[in-house]
Amino acid sequence: MAKTPAALARERIGLSIEAAAKKNHLSVRTLRDYEAGRGKNLYRARKIARSYGCSVFACFTEQGIANQIAVK
User: Fold this and answer.
1) Which residues span the domain enclosing 43?
2) What number of CA atoms fall less than 13 Å from residue 56's CA on the CB side?
3) Is 66's pLDDT higher than 70?
4) Where are the alpha helices (DSSP H) in the chain?
5) Mean pLDDT of 64-70
């Protein structure tokens, strides 16, 4: 299974999916949905991205993570 930009961002800061779900007050299933791009609530997506240390665009789209890597 290919890693999504959100999963890569989460792993970069050293959080497991369970720890990230607890930190964001979400269920693991809900967090997995957001990381897979199926989350619909922008407020929640911003909260998740902020906890991962990136923007929503960089965290939840392939193009965003590619741009973030190219800048570094």
Assistant:
1) 5-71
2) 11
3) no
4) 5-12, 17-23, 28-35, 42-52, 56-60, 62-71
5) 56
